[in-house]
Amino acid sequence: MSERKKVRKSSRLSSKSHDEDTKSLSNEAPKHILSNPIILAGAGIAAVGLVGWIIKQTFFNNKGRYSSLKASVSCVPLASGHRCLVKRVIAGDNSCLFNAVGYLMHKNLTRASRLRAAVAAEVQKNPEYYSTAFLGMPNDEYCRWIQQPHNWGGAIELSIFSKMYRVELAAWNVETCTCHVFGEDQKYSRRAQLVYNGTHYDALVISDGATSSATTDDTLIDPKSRPEGLDAIRAAKRLVRLMHTSSKFQGGEKRRLRCSAEGCGLKFYSESAAKVHANKTGHDHFEEF
C-alpha cells in the first residue's frame, strides 16, 4: 500500500472513531456542551473531559438516604446525606467523661477505672508540671482522688487524654454553644468529639443513623479533611445549638430537675441547685419533671 493510501485510510479510521465517540457522548452530555466546537475539537480530549464532568455531576447530585432526615438533639445528617452525626448516650454513673473517652478511643464503655489509673500515673510522673497550682490540690492527693469512682473528670483529664492518645478532643458545651479543643495546638491529625451539658458528657460519633448499630460508628475524624471532617464539625455545632434551644436547656433557673442516681430522687427547682447537689454527691444525671 502506498504512503498516500495509508494516510487516507488512517484519516477515515480517525474520523469514524471521532464520530462514534461524539455519538456516545451525545447520549450523556448536555446539548449546549456538545454544540461547542472548542470542546469537541478533539474526540480524545473531549471524551476524557466530558466523562470526568459527567462523573462529577453524578457524584454531587447523588443525595444520600439521610438527606431528608430532620435534625434532632440526638442525630444530625451530614451535608452529603450519606451518614449522620449521632450522640451516643453514656451512663450517668459519675464516670461519664472517662467512659465517653473509652468509647471514642476503644469502643468500650467499661474502661473508666483503667483510664482513671492512667491519668493518675501520668500526673504522678510529672509533679513539676502537674503542681498544686495546676491541680487545685497536692499531686499525690490528686492521684488518689481521681481514682475514686464517684469523682468527676473535666478539663484536666481531657488535656491528659489528648496527650496520651495524640488526638484532639473537642468538648462542646451545650450551655454556651462553644467548643474547646484540647490538643488543637499540637497539629494532631485525628479528633474525637464530646458534648457536655453542665453535669454530663456524651460521645459524638459518625454513624449510619440514630437507631443504627454501634458497630457502624466512626469515633474519630480528620478535622481538616474536606468535606467529611468539616461536615462532622458543622453537624456537631448544629446538634449543640438544637440541644441549647430545646426546652431542656432554656431557662436554667426555672427548670425542675430530679436526681436520677439510684436511691436519691431529690428534686430541685433550679439548675444551680442541681449543680450544687451534683458537686457534693457526685451524682451527675438529672431529668426534668
UniProtKB/TrEMBL annotation:
GO terms for cellular component: cytosol; nucleus. Keywords: Cytoplasm, Hydrolase, Membrane, Protease, Thiol protease, Transmembrane, Transmembrane helix, Ubl conjugation pathway. It catalyses: Thiol-dependent hydrolysis of ester, thioester, amide, peptide and isopeptide bonds formed by the C-terminal Gly of ubiquitin (a 76-residue protein attached to proteins as an intracellular targeting signal). One of its GO terms (biological process) is endoplasmic reticulum unfolded protein response. One of its GO terms (molecular function) is cysteine-type deubiquitinase activity. Residues 1-11 have a biased composition (Basic residues). Residues 85-207 form the OTU domain. This is Ubiquitin thioesterase OTU. It comes from Polytomella parva.
